[in-house]
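seq as requested:
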Amino acid sequence: MAENLKYAITRDYISKGKSRPQEKNNGITFIVAHDTGNAGSTAYANRAYFAKNVVSASAHTFIDDDVILEIIPLDEKAWHVRYVVNTDNVLFNGDANDHAIGVELCWGGSITFREAYSRYVWYIAYLCDKFKLDPESDVVAHSTLDPTRRTDPQNALNRYGVTWAEFIRDVTASYHLLDGSDVIDVIPTPPPKNVLLISYGDRGDEVKRIQNYLINAGMNLQEYGADGIFGRETELAVKKFQRLYGLSEDGIVGPITLAALKKAPKRPSSQAPVRPYPGHYVMIGDRGKDVEAIQRAVNVKPDGIFGPITRDAVRSYQSRKGLLVDGIVGPKTWNVMF
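struct tokens:
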């Protein structure tokens, strides 16, 4: 790197759970370089996903063109390399989850690679200085530790003409510019307060409100409509909206995306409903996609079979909405649902 840039580090830790075991590590002896593998997914989008604590996977730090974001303290374990692979034990005499910091590079979409890469290089050099590591021997690619399943960070680096060797040279150059005497200006930037981040897997009235904004903006929610469940269909609609409006295409509804949704021109009223009434009552014994859509709307496992559990859930829904309580989805119940 041509100059010794210094960047702020934002520490916005997720809560204890599957993604953050809140266990102390055994001392840092190496660093694992990763990339997110998901084009356009920002640092805060990744934080939003891991903050749900639904998977036993994580990394300490995510870096994009705007932020170096630590989501797990560096003195704690993160689940960023599989325990069942033993290359880390062979090369570093210890498991990566116990002895290494996992650093993820965000790339693709609207992320400016050179900005993200500069932060990535600087941060890894900073870690080498902080933990007295040698960037030429103590920084390893995830692909080296788990070659049968992983290709990162070369997956991202190579797309932009950067080889692993060049990356290590850049980290080493940045590290030597520190020369052991620089005081690295690390600013614990306060995390955003009260920031709306709605993403895949979320449910509730806020999701339904976002879905209605998407529908009004002409996005396709033909399958499930505004059912209050942020599933794959909603995520794809959000990404399409972000792409059309020049936003970061991460499928996450944060303040910027929400503001754009509110301002987006409404679709013509002559367009067909998002999910038209099928033209017949849907009731116990019925099967198919319409039943599945109803089940999602009433928060029942969507197996496409209208049984007693679905009927009772429809009754509860009708009662809450002031409809005739009969457990049958006719046009009035349908139009309230969708």
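The longest strand covers residues 30-35.
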